[in-house]
Amino acid sequence: MSEWFINQNRTSFQKRFFPESTRSMWSDWRWQLRHRFRNPAALARVLRLSDSERTALDHVTNGPPWAITPYYAALMNPDDPSHPLRRTLVPTLAENIPTPGESSDPLDETTATVAPNLIRRHEDRVVLLATDLCAGYCRYCTRSRLVGNGVRTDWQPALAYIATHPEIRDVLISGGDPLLLATRRLERLLTSLRAIPHVELIRIGSRMPLLVPMRITRKLVAMLKRHHPLGLSLHATHPDELTPEAGQALERLADAGILLAGQTVLLAGINDDLETLRTLMRGLVRHRVRPYYLYQCDPISGSGHFRVPVSRGLILMEGLVGHLSGYAVPRYVIDAPGGGGKIPIASATLVGREGNDLLIRNHLGRICRYPDPELRGEPPC
């Protein structure tokens, strides 16, 4: 989608549906949140809803709540229910179709919860759920069971647990979306974590730079910069999200020295083709976001219509490796159900041995040799 088209579409959308708004209003993230589409009649003003969408919006029973900012709605094709951005946030009846193996908590986060709003699977890392609210609710969200209640989160038990476990060095602040918090409240949380001597790295998981890029204000970035080393894990779904506004938000974060890592869920009919993935990964790198994970979609209840066969995912990865700069190639992983953690998935590149040579297959299918004489008389590492 060209920058000209994006600007024209956004401007015409604003004039048509929010004629009373000024440019400064539209560019205010709080205005965007206040004017989210949250009922079917309002959304039907801007999108020609399909029967499946309309019925699902009236009776959301098997997934998270829904909400769409004016900014993000302006990026959607109003006449096409299959438009990628539209499918990520607008419910459909497919969510009510169960698929074997699905669960409301496929990663078994409940069992891994060691304190209220604190998940721990690894010795040195924890996930702190700072809020249950998002600017928009992804229809494939692995925390569908938790989000959207609007209950104020008490962080003190989680902070106390982290403070008494010196082996914890890395804290991922997640939710919900932590950047939905007021800047002062988020700063209090970051300050509390930075006061714990053994916490080395703090990361924030967010979609706000793409859903509501206006949130990335200079004031917010200046505050975040005071808490280095700080990283942001960006959930990016489709290249249409990389608008000029989103680019400016990511540039501000990168200029502030914040480590930016891109995480993408592989989704059927949304980003499961080579051209889309290549364009997305190149776009992320162009904005100084390092593609990190390509996730196989978690088997959350009602997500069967989003999930891509792993065999297809492997073919797509083969189309990325060797055709993109190494900086632009993510790792393809499955976050194993039952709390098994993130497991990298890769095609077989190790063919075998021939004498002292290791035989390996490259991205073009060519068999290459690597000198690798087997050690004799020495124990393995």
UniProtKB/TrEMBL annotation:
The keyword Iron applies. PROSITE patterns: RADICAL_SAM. Keywords: 4Fe-4S, Iron, Iron-sulfur, Isomerase, Metal-binding, Pyridoxal phosphate, S-adenosyl-L-methionine. Residues 120-328 form the Radical SAM core domain. Gene3D superfamilies: 6.10.140.1170, Aldolase class I. Its cofactor is [4Fe-4S] cluster; pyridoxal 5'-phosphate. The keyword Isomerase applies. It is an enzyme of class 5 (isomerase). One of its GO terms (molecular function) is L-lysine 2,3-aminomutase activity. Its EC number is 5.4.3.2. It comes from the Bacteria. Belongs to the radical SAM superfamily. KamA family. NCBIfam families: KamA family radical SAM protein (TIGR00238). This is L-lysine 2,3-aminomutase. It comes from Candidatus Magnetaquiglobus chichijimensis.
